């Protein structure tokens, strides 16, 4: 390339040449490209003036922008508030009704029940799913989701196994006031052999049912310990648990904690909420400290009930409309 010009088109080069035939030319960008660049630069300035932009070193504030003509200053918070106002207006007729209704009455009202089933999802996700899992499926303490008998961080809410009862009003009471499990530690009441024996009996009841476990000679010693140590006082004569006590059903395969031999033995030995090495089972109180409003707690009660595990008899029939006057 002689004289730093393109031999084909006569365009000058910058003088940077590689391998004797590769060079940078001084061609200008197309006009359309330059116009686009200029328009982009102008738009950046306009956008910066219209909307909130960079922070300012003045009282920790920021440039708020002049806003669109006739619309005032724009902020994301203001836009959120406007959208929320529209949503609140749509919800208002439902929310006003919920204030004076019981959870059972809400459940019996088809429209309100459907509304709560939809609006309660966010409440449940924010306040309950961390322990009970999304949709009430439970969360395993061990993180091994294939091992159901290892126990849950909190009870499953979509089955029909309830410690304190699955009636709609009972669920509402649980959410409002919380629950705290209780089981006496037996380490100072029973010998190690007696604990081993009753552990095997409890495991047998879970796997075989109480009738078959009672007839199983291999766990007869544990059956005797179970009766003599007054386990029936809390778990009932049929070992199916007592809602008034919040005691567990020992005849099914659903375990609040670890359902292995070692796990059952630990629970019997150290109890629940009873000090060192004890199991911990505490449901928070959502009334205390204004954690949730009265309406929000009603919504959660109906939402949890509608998972499908609530006691069916608790859902009252809708009241009949009054007869029209002649």
Would you mind describing this structure in some detail?
Helix content is 43%, strand content 4%. It has 326 residues and is mainly alpha-helical. Among the domains are: 2-50, no CATH class; 182-280, Orthogonal Bundle (Cytochrome Bc1 Complex, Chain D, domain 2), CATH 1.10.760. The strands form 2 sheets. Strands 1-2 form a two-stranded antiparallel sheet. The chain has a two-stranded antiparallel sheet with strand order 3-4. Helix 4 packs across helix 12 (294-305), helix 7 crosses helix 9 and helix 7 (192-208) packs across helix 11. The protein is elongated, with a radius of gyration of 35 Å. 24% of the residues are buried.
Supply the key terms.
326 residues, mainly alpha, Cytochrome Bc1 Complex, Chain D, domain 2, two-stranded antiparallel sheet, 12 helices, 4 strands, 43% helix, elongated, disordered C terminus
- Order the strands across the largest sheet as they lie in space: 1-2
Distance between the termini: 109 Å
Nearest-integer average pLDDT? 85
Low-confidence stretches: 143-150, 314-326
Fraction in beta strands: under 5%
For this structure, what is the CATH homologous superfamily of the domain at 182-280? Cytochrome c-like domain
Q: Rough shape?
A: elongated
Strand elements, count: 4
Helix proportion range: 40-55%
Assign the CATH architecture of the domain at 182-280. Answer: Orthogonal Bundle
Tell me about the biggest sheet?
Answer: 2 strands, antiparallel
CATH topology group of the domain at 182-280: Cytochrome Bc1 Complex, Chain D, domain 2
Give me the strand/helix succession: EEHHHHHHEHHHHHEH
* Broad structural category: mainly alpha
Based on CA atoms alone, the radius of gyration comes out at: 35 Å
The number of helical runs is: 12
Question: What is the CATH domain class of the domain at 182-280?
Answer: Mainly Alpha
